[in-house]
Automatic annotation (TrEMBL):
Domain ABC3 transporter permease C-terminal stretches: 31-148
Localization annotation: Cell membrane
GO cellular component: a single term: plasma membrane
InterPro entries: ABC3_permease_C (IPR003838), Macrolide_Exporter_MacB (IPR050250)
Keywords: Cell membrane, Membrane, Transmembrane, Transmembrane helix
Species of origin: marine sediment metagenome
GO molecular function: transmembrane transporter activity
Protein name per the record: ABC3 transporter permease C-terminal domain-containing protein
Length: 265
């Protein structure tokens, strides 16, 4: 049994519908998005810990007047979640501005109903909370661990704490960035190769009439002969499948494939 909702992304069935998607592409872009989020979280951690000296006096004063470590942790986590929420709104703003240009580029009309679809809304809230907590949990515990005596007696040494961790995070961040850039470069080169490859025929000044045989029926041959009489038309042909589009094997089957391939929708 194959659910109807799985047809678009299912590529394992022979002679399936054309113009389908590929679940592997969904996984690839999802992994890239996760890596970009990880890089953003690492940036936030590095900036928060590197600027710890600027907030050391605030933390020291709060502890001297009785603030607990837990309350300081909650404050920094709340600030991180708030910043994540603002970043999400800014990202939606950028998407809405660039969406018309992107739709024009891919010749599609993509729409995203952020607040009409409950799943999308819950997903956005979940991502905001997850990113805010993941990015802010280490700075929260790190900054709340400062002691008033260390802050006011040797505040300059505060910024040196966690230096090894920051260095490791920077190295990890640059490693991920290089991997993503190499992947983008490879995809660009492959796309460029596909665009520039010689196909063996001139793609310019070619007119394709879709489903002409269905519309004309028995008059198709006469229509082709009439077109061939025009001096500006060099050649007329008909085919059941365009090169590069869905191909009908017409009874041909791949080797080692089972003889029976019945699927129920």
């Amino acid at each position: 049994l194959q659910p109807i909702k799985d047809i678009h992304l299912n590529v394992n069935i022979n002679d399936n519908l054309p113009n389908k998607g590929n679940m592997n592409y969904v996984y690839i872009f999802s992994i890239i998005a996760i890596f970009i989020l990880i890089i953003a979280c690492i940036n936030f951690i590095n900036l928060s810990t590197a600027k710890s000296v600027n907030r050391a006096n605030e933390i020291g004063l709060r502890k001297m007047i009785g603030s607990s470590k837990a309350s300081i942790i909650r404050q920094f986590l709340a600030e991180s979640i708030l910043l994540s929420f603002i970043s999400m709104l800014f990202a939606i703003f950028i998407i809405e501005i660039s969406k018309p240009y992107y739709n024009n580029l891919i010749d599609k009309k993509l729409t995203i109903r952020y607040f009409e679809n409950p799943l999308i809304l819950l997903g956005l809230i979940g991502v905001v909370l997850l990113v805010g907590i993941v990015a802010g949990i280490y700075p929260a515990f790190y900054l709340s661990s400062f002691q008033p005596a260390d802050i006011f007696n040797g505040g300059n040494r505060i910024g040196l704490k966690g230096k090894n961790l920051r260095s490791g995070l920077v190295i990890f961040q640059f490693t991920i960035s290089i991997i993503i850039l190499l992947g983008i470069f490879m995809v660009f080169k492959q796309t460029k190769f596909v665009q520039d490859i010689k196909l063996g025929f001139n793609q310019n000044q070619i007119l394709v009439l879709h489903r002409a045989n269905t519309a004309l029926g028995n008059d198709l041959d006469a229509f082709i002969q009439d077109l061939a009489m025009y001096p500006d038309i060099l050649c007329v042909s008909n085919t059941s499948s365009l090169p590069g589009r869905h191909f009908d094997p017409n009874g041909h089957r791949l080797e080692n494939r089972p003889l029976s391939e019945e699927y129920t929708l």
